[in-house]
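In response to a reviewer's request, we include the raw inputs and outputs for one of the modeled complexes. The four entities were modeled together in a single run.
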Amino acid sequence: MDQADDRSWTITDLAEEYAVTLRTIRHYEDVGLLSPERRGTARVFHNRDRVRLALILRGKRLGFSLEEIATIVNMYDEQPGESGQLEYLLDQIAVRRRELEQRRRDIEDTLRELDAVERRCRDDLSALVGPAAGDGSRLR
Amino acid sequence: MDQADDRSWTITDLAEEYAVTLRTIRHYEDVGLLSPERRGTARVFHNRDRVRLALILRGKRLGFSLEEIATIVNMYDEQPGESGQLEYLLDQIAVRRRELEQRRRDIEDTLRELDAVERRCRDDLSALVGPAAGDGSRLR
DNA sequence: CCGGTGCTTTACGCTTACGTAAACGTAAGG
DNA sequence: CCTTACGTTTACGTAAGCGTAAAGCACCGG
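The model returned the following structure tokens for the whole complex.
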């Protein structure tokens, strides 16, 4: 594995590394997304928690709610369990996959449209210098 | 254009078509994302509004806030304006593009990990029938 | 022993994105 | 004229995701 797979972090370490507040991290613990070790009252984060935090934040960027993120993140370390659970997990995976693929299509579409807007914008800009004809590609 | 570019829709039409509530559509109007024609007090939606609603919902799927969506959607029908505005718009486009590309990377990563989880899951499942060796690819 | 630094908990506050209830207008059909 | 369907406004409610005090423990250096 890594050179220091047994390293540990304070809450401030992680907060700085991932640019979130202490409150945010504690909140994730409150809702059960993180469960750092306790040494006395202090939280001690290990690599596992660090990975989970990264997963949580990525989920957030993708627009998932903390609850959805919980089901996703927990998929990563389910124990084998019985076959019914495994089938359910496979279902969940399929659902998430479809959602993600939809989002990816949304992104591709939006990027293409941004290209169009940008082109139009550059046309308008150059038209301010040496006037020509627009292509009439507004929304209306 | 389309056969009926001058069609109009009631609020219920759009709500059903896009599977949202009337309240949601009215809320989008409240915050200035939609501005349907008024015939008396009743709302009359035209193609422009319909397109905007689709854009709004796509933005939501991508995890943008309504405020962010407003700035994005409004980019689509900005008037040429003066060069300062156009420069600003180009900046905004660049910002959005970077955000979207980050999200796309997030999605790709997540899809890959889903694949891994699924493989592991299928392994576990088949191990329940004819036991073999796992690959030890858990989070911890 | 005293102060500071860094952590902790408890708990109320705030914003976003709507839900939901109350009360009423308007047009069609029996 | 009455009902039914569909629309409207106003306004308070709510869940999620934190922000922000307020107050306290625990250790460290002087």
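As requested, we also summarize the result in words. The beta strands of chain A are 37-39, 42-44. The longest strand of chain A covers residues 37-39.
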